């Protein structure tokens, strides 16, 4: 399978930006396996400073703990790639920003690093809103590293678009 096209990613980013702007909301992002791809995509749009507040690239567990306040015990119990950790990352991005919405991504993009329980392509998402809503999801994405990462970005954007309506 091919990676998600740049055109589709930009359309999703613009749709999310329009929804955030219409609500007067700011967005914070917390990324692990995508390494800032969501933030780069969002900041490529003119006018994004009206709705994109900041991004955290927390690739290492220590960064998730230090920058986002993800509890050490949570990572030790569930792992960095889990819905629990992704939800805590999103909640932490809200807490450590001035945003009203946050999204988080943590996954195993490969080609190595997978296990039978957590294979390459496993990606977990977290979304949080200032009203206390926190949602999470997990999916298994096929493809090479670039394909997994691009699909992960698209899924994170779609999830927040759906959540905020």
Task: Explain the layout of strands and helices.
Layout: H1 6-23, E1 27-31, H2 37-43, E2 52-57, H3 61-68, H4 72-78, H5 83-95, E3 101-107, E4 122-129, E5 134-140, H6 145-164
Parallel strand pairs: 1-2, 1-3
Antiparallel strand pairs: 3-4, 4-5
Helix pairs in contact: 1-6
Describe the structure.
This protein is an alpha/beta fold and 165 residues long. It has a single domain (6-164), classed as Maf protein. 44% of the residues lie in helices and 20% in strands. Strands 2-1-3-4-5 form a five-stranded mixed beta sheet, sandwiched between helices. α1 packs parallel to α6. The longest helix has 20 residues, at 145-164.
Spans of 5+ residues with little confidence (pLDDT < 50)?
Answer: none
Number of helices: 6
Name the overall outline.
globular
Task: Indicate how many domains the architecture comprises.
Answer: 1
CATH superfamily: CinA-like
How big is the Rg?
Answer: 15 Å
The CATH architecture classification is: Alpha-Beta Complex
Name of the top-level CATH class: Alpha Beta
Tell me the distance between the termini: 29 Å
Taking strands numbered 1, 2, ... along the chain, how are they ordered across the largest sheet?
2-1-3-4-5
Query: How much of the residues is beta strand, in percent?
Result: 15-25%
